[in-house]
What we know:
The complex is a heterodimer.
Chain A: E1 5-10, E2 14-20, E3 24-28, H1 35-48, E4 55-57, E5 62-64, H2 70-75, E6 81-84, H3 94-100, E7 106-110, E8 125-134, E9 139-146, E10 160-163, H4 168-180, E11 183-186, H5 193-198, E12 205-208, H6 215-228, E13 231-234, H7 239-245, H8 252-259, H9 273-285, H10 304-312
Chain B: E1 2-6, H1 16-23, H2 26-29, H3 32-42, E2 45-48, E3 51-54, E4 58-60, H4 67-77, E5 84-85, H5 94-103, E6 106-110, E7 123-125, E8 130-132, H6 135-142
Parallel strand pairs in B: 1-6, 1-7, 5-6
Antiparallel strand pairs in B: 2-3, 3-4, 7-8
Amino acid sequence: MKGKYKITxxxxxxxxxxxxxxxxxxxxxxxxxxxxxxxxxxxxxxxxGSSSGIDVICSAPCRILEGASWQLILENSSxxxxxxxxxxxxxxxxxxxxxxxxxxxxxxxxxxESLYNLPYSVEEIYGLHCSGKYHDTKRAYQQMYxxxxxxxxxxxxxxxxxxxxxxxxxxxxxAVGEENGxxxxxxxxxxxxxxxxxxxxxxxxxxxxxxAAIGPEMDRLYQCALSKGNIYLxxxxxxxxxxxxxxxxxxxxxxxxxxxxxxFLDSRxxxxxxxxxxxxxxxxxxxxxxxxxxxxxxxxYLHERNRKFILESIQGITFQ
Amino acid sequence: xxNVYLGEMEQAVYHPPTYFDNxxxxxxxxxxxxxxxxxxVDHSEVISPHLIESPVLGPISVREISGGVKxxxxxxxxxxxxxxxxxxxxxxxxxxxxxxxxxxxxxxxLRHLMNFGSGDFEIRILNTDEVVHNMGEFVSIAGxxx
Lengths: 320, 146
């Protein structure tokens, strides 16, 4: 499944309006913000159609995924946006993650739990809020807001950098750090970042990780950063996205793709966006001196001009 | 005292709102604590044991109050001895969980990092048998389990 979908769900009293553009969207936030009401309205509309009195406006079918037959439903569905409410414990299972992988559907999951089996983006974790009454002052207007829109406590001049990457991304920031007296450590994967930053002392630490898949870690990393005060979180889509968006690799097509990646990547092929950006960078550099490999950093990326391009595209971190 | 078991807990009620719908007692709804919690979290008024006035939905039944408030009411009044999954409660329920635990020994299951606010509190983490006193201490331990 590709693309961005605008969804409107409304009855006489409530109107929900939001857009989704990735295979996995998570809704959490305060109690009594209308999450379960949204699910109930979608369920009634699915079961009774227009005779429910509920309008669901979307270019893709919107369905509820719940109950013991969820696997059977997914096996026989494509091009559908599925919504699940928080009573469905199956969303935290490996079986569900496997079903989402390679699936031609989008998923909107209502839960406060961190779904460690699923690679969702920090950008796609939302809460719901009422943004006022709609036109006739009778209908309440519900919209989504990004829970972690303000997590960047930048700018920062870090004394230490922690990367999620173990290979190219780590090698790049290690080399930049060595030149500027900044230590750099690889966490060896996103699930190790929390324990690593928990053990840090008073030095300012900047964590650099792939925003496209850091969603499950975000709760504890954000709370840890808030508590400690010396932890700074920088989550671009991925290291490869940083290179692509820096302008180092020329091409109008790259800019077009980066402006709306959702129109170019298929959820069946890419479980999360950072894998798409890696494939894109490998493809666009394969015949050049900047030939990219995730496993080992091409030293050309450390040449002064190239490095400068990449570093200048990083907003909020001062390396020297 | 609030006791928290972090992470998966097989014997806990995973979705307390469903349990509430099938087990609540009318008299729980008109208790002063329930009236206050429904007013604070749901911005709704208890009219009678069978009727709630919601500013958005209009007159609604008790079954239509939020899952968070249903779980708080269970924590306060259910005497079955069951442990409820408090991860169906948003952060706007946290102060009420602490308040309920001031009056009784309350054990809950948490599967996410609930924000208990910037003040001091006392929570016993059952996984490690440690008592934490603020969010920094809580996150430091809970982050390993949820």
